[in-house]
Amino acid sequence: MGSQASLPCCIEATRHKEDPGIEHVVVVATGGDTSPRSATRVTLPLRCDAIELEASTTCDGNVGDANACGGPPRGSSSCSTRSCSARTAFSARSGGVGGAGGGSSASLHASLGHVRSVLEAGDVVLIRGSWLAQMHRSNTLLPRRQEIPPQAVCDPEMVLSLPLVAVSHTWATPQHPDPQGEQFSLLGGMAEQWMKSREDAGKGDFAVFFDWCSVYQEPRSLVEKASYDRGLRHAALWFAHRESHVWLLPVPGTSSGCGGAGPEARGWPMFERSLTNMATPGAHVLDFSLLDGRCKDWRRTSEVCRASRCPPPVPEVFSREMQQRKFTVATDQAVVEALYRAAFEDVMGSAKELDLHGLDWGDSEAQRLAEALPRCSCLMDLRVGENRIGDDGLERLAAAIAHCHCLQRLDLSANEISDYGVEQLAAVLTSCPFLEEVDLSRNSVGDVGASALAAVLPGCAALRQLSLAGNEIGDLGAARIAATIPRCARLQALDLDENEVGDAGAEKLAAAMLRCGQLQKLGLARNRIGDSGAEEMAAAIPRCNRLQEFGIGGNEVGEILGGKRIGDGGAETLASALVRCGRLEKLDLSENRIGDRGTERIAAVM
Question: What is the largest CA-CA distance in the chain?
Fold first, then answer.
């Protein structure tokens, strides 16, 4: 269960004209100010089960009348901010997440129960991994679904406890996917390798979706044709499910380069690959075209063959891309487009978390992601740290983030973002009234970017944590931040480690700390602060009743930039202050010029 944001707000529950049930809610977050001019109004879909709404139903006025929030449309129910005590709480569920995640009970692609119900219908079967390994050892071609022996099939109840593997591959001919057995041999070899790894770890079997064995193939009887058509409706499930592992098989005798004869040139494999980019955890997608001589065991194979990832295209873009792909049966294109649209709306529309860190994405991937974000109406946690996203990419993302009204956490750390990108982001942050955490650490943000953020921070009513560590912020940026954080009523942590803040900036921050009633953590380590800045901090921290962590250690950056370091005088002043810090749990004074006298003084009061 994640953290919760509790804000003063008004809740308007709007009813559909043809449905007496509530379709969506309009939450008007005031941030503690009852003035309608300061309110932030956002519309949230009730399909997002991350939203829990609790409100008093006592109102001053009649339903539909104007109130302090400006009044809802006629035919809706409302509560005014003057007479309603309301709370909007967001809770995040954990889940294996690679592309999209944090499963929602509303998503069919997050429910193992739905997989079981599909299998119980009998139109699709999953094959035991152990049976595939056995077939590989016997050097036997895999039979089609009609000839699969019963002992090879997983019982539907087993899917609740077994890993699920979906195999994406091309067909060599319209009649048979692999008449020479090349792909079958590769698939069986990988199944045998993973099976051995699982047995060595004391684990059991796994279930495999492989269309040749899992659905009825030509020639089909009328009954088999009807079953095949029903099974086709679930073609997206196996690749878009959040619990799936996906194995991508290469076309025998070809590379997998885009635009060639590889899987990307074929409609169905491209469809399956696009589905995996929505929800499948990154470590679960393996591209066996990357196999080499190092892949002697499953641990090494899973490292070498980890597939690259791209943002999933929105359905309109996907449909355009499908026009360039090859389909053996022309009518399959329309089927694939319809299946993709339904899966995209379900998976991305219900995703609470997008964990996209460390994917080596640049501005072009950020632009494609930005196209998808407005469809993520339940998104609470967006992580795109440790990429190569620059200002252009962030500008696109910022425009999309403005539509993510449920967003609570935003991680943009370790990218290539400078002042311009942060200015674009700052312009939309107040569109996310429940935003609690923002991480812009390890970028290239300077005083201009810091000033832009400072200007909007008071409007981020739920903000609890702001990390700007590892940037290029100096005294001016620190002063601008100091001027506004006292108006951030919920701010608990501010991290300015590894910047260029000097004594002047430290003095401003020290004065601001006294008016930050919730501040628990302040990081100023590895800056340019000397004894005078330390003395101002020492005067302030005993009066910060909630402060638990304080870092003011220095490092070589201070010397390179000509900054001063804290010596014994500053250390003694801090030591005197520590005696009066009842809640302080962590103090960082590393890498300074503190000698024996200062060290002894600090040790005496710890």
Answer: 92
Residue 508's identity, in one-letter code, is K
Of 164-168, 437-441, 514-518, the least confident: 514-518
pLDDT (mean) for 374-388: 97
Express each pLDDT in 311-335 by its tens digit.
999 999 999 999 999 898 899 999 9
| This model's pTM is above 0.85 | no
- What mean pLDDT, rounded, does the chain reach? 79
Write phi, then psi, for 582 (nearest 5 degrees).
-65, -30
Angle (deg, nearest 10), helices 315-322 and 332-350: 160
- Cα–Cα distances (Å) from 557 to 273, 418, 449, 524, in that order, read 45, 20, 21, 13
Span 355-380, mean pLDDT? 96
CA gap 247, 265 in Å, rounded: 17
Question: What is the Cα Rg of the chain in Å?
Answer: 29
**3-state SS of 79-135?**
CCCCCCCEEEEECCCCCCCCCCECCCCCCHHHCHHHHHHHHHCCCCCCEEHHHHHHH
Q: Whose structure tokens read 């329309």? A: 334
The continuous run of DSSP H or E covering 602 comes out as helix 596-605
Q: Report the percent of the chain where pLDDT is more than 70.
A: 71
Dist CA 446 CA 391 (whole Å)? 13
Q: Which letter, b or e, does each residue of 334-352 get, where b requires 16 or more Cβ atoms within 10 Å of its Cβ?
A: ebbbebbbbbbebbbbbbb
Q: Which residues contact 340 (CB under 8 A, 6 or more apart)?
A: 236, 271, 274, 275, 315, 318
Question: At residue 527, does pLDDT exceed 80?
Answer: yes
First-last CA distance in the chain: 35
